[in-house]
Amino acid sequence: MPRRSPIQWPDGARIAVIPCVAFETWPDDVGTPIHPETMREIKAGGHEIASESYIHDYSYMKGREEERADLEKTVDAIRRVTGEPPPGFLSVGVRPSEHTPELAAELGYVYWADLQHKDLPYTLRVGHRDLVVIDYLFALNDYNTNAESGRAPRELLQIWKDTFDVFYAEGAPSPKMMAWGLHPFLSGRPYRAAILQEFIRYAKGHPGVWFPRCVDVARWWLLKYRDHHVETWPNCLSMTTPPIVSKFSVAG
């Protein structure tokens, strides 16, 4: 595959940094309401409300119509609470089905975050619709590193800094993106909130750092780079064996 030509972020930023909060409640209270007051407060603060599925279950375990009905309920619930449909979708556990991108495109999602093979967005052509693929770096996820690798928070902080440093250096000639997941039941704890605060201060200490929402990246991409790099669905060999990864997104 030919090398992609460099893109530009707004104001000439070298890197887009996107901490994403997975607002999940599970497993004991699966199926309970999506905390409308909290969702409205998050929205009023200028944040984006994206989505996973309606309850914390896996897309690949459903048939197409069952998955569609689930996503329709999800879109409707978030629209009723926030006044807008969710712009982005990530499958629970980053375990989509072969139908997930088709349904996301049909239901009006702007971007999809399950795929894990690029360090920049790209356009995924799904039938006659376009989805922006925004890779969420599961290796940086607080849940993934805590549950599977047993890393201490300070070790995770160093991983975040090292990732940022590499992307920032590479971003001089060719801007990059760093998006990853944070869970309130982990990163909301004081000793973990401290490392997130330290990382954000570290990143902000560098010139040319953009802190967008995922939807801002997706809209910028569609406006400026829709045809910069296009792949056509299906663009992977199989969706039947779920990858062993984790979660993401400011999700209701």
Report the top-level CATH class: Alpha Beta
Query: Could you tell me the mean pLDDT?
Result: 89
CATH superfamily: Glycoside hydrolase/deacetylase
Structural class by secondary-structure content:
alpha/beta
The fraction of residues assigned to DSSP E strands is 5-15%
Q: Count all strands and give the number.
A: 8
CATH fold title: TIM Barrel
**Spatial separation of the terminal alpha carbons:** 37 Å
Catalogue the unreliable spans.
240-252
Number of DSSP helices?
8
Helical percentage: 25-40%
Going across the biggest sheet, name each strand in turn: 2-3-5-4-8
Task: Give the biggest sheet.
Answer: 5 strands, mixed
Tell me the domain tally: 1
Shape annotation: globular
Mind explaining what this structure looks like?
The protein is an alpha/beta fold and 252 residues long. It has one domain (10-232): Glycoside hydrolase/deacetylase (TIM Barrel). It is built from eight helices and eight strands, in the order βααβαβββααβααβαβ. The chain has helices at residues 36-44, 64-82, 100-106, 142-149, 153-170, 184-187, 190-204, 214-224, and strands at 15-21, 88-89, 111-112, 122-126, 129-133, 176-182, 209-210, 230-232. It has a five-stranded mixed beta sheet. A three-stranded parallel beta sheet has the order 6-1-7. Strand 4 (122-126) and strand 5 form a beta hairpin. It is globular.
